[in-house]
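hiii so um. not sure if this is the right channel but i have a protein structure encoded as tokens and i wanna go backwards to a sequence. like what aa goes where. can anyone help
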């Protein structure tokens, strides 16, 4: 089963915003972004990864001054299987993570869903986020 595990916020000052959330809620810093798409800070509450990013390209068509919720990420068991399902439902593929660029992002594929809402899918958990629960049949076989 797919699980929501990532939310990205577009910010003008990721450092200041991250400090606010660390002090306000006790979120832990679990990483830093510095790549072709964005720079910023990754925080976690142990279940979700919260990326606070200053984007370098306008992925939403709202301009680089846009601040607010940018996209969300869903952890899936099989990216290839889910990408086919998403496209069959009308999602538009946007971009794949550039494996050659190293681990500059946790997503594996980005899509536009209904009304142009951007989201990621990945098989590997974002930093600090909870992995998918073990499937019942795998757990039963291990007993």
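sure thing!! here u go:
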């Amino acid at each position: 089963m797919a699980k929501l595990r990532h939310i990205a916020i577009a910010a003008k000052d990721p450092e200041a915003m991250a400090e606010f959330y660390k002090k306000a809620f006790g979120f832990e810093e679990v990483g830093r972004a510095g790549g072709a798409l964005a720079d910023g800070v990754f925080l976690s509450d142990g279940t979700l990864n919260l990326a606070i990013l200053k984007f370098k390209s306008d992925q939403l068509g709202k301009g680089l001054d846009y601040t607010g919720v940018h996209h969300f990420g869903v952890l899936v068991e099989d990216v290839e299987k889910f990408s086919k399902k998403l496209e069959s439902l009308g999602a538009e593929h946007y971009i794949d993570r550039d494996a050659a660029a190293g681990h500059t992002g946790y997503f594996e594929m980005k899509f536009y869903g209904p009304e142009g809402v951007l989201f990621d899918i990945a098989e590997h958990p974002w930093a600090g986020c909870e992995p998918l629960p073990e499937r019942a049949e795998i757990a039963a076989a291990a007993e």
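oh and The chain has one domain: 3-142.
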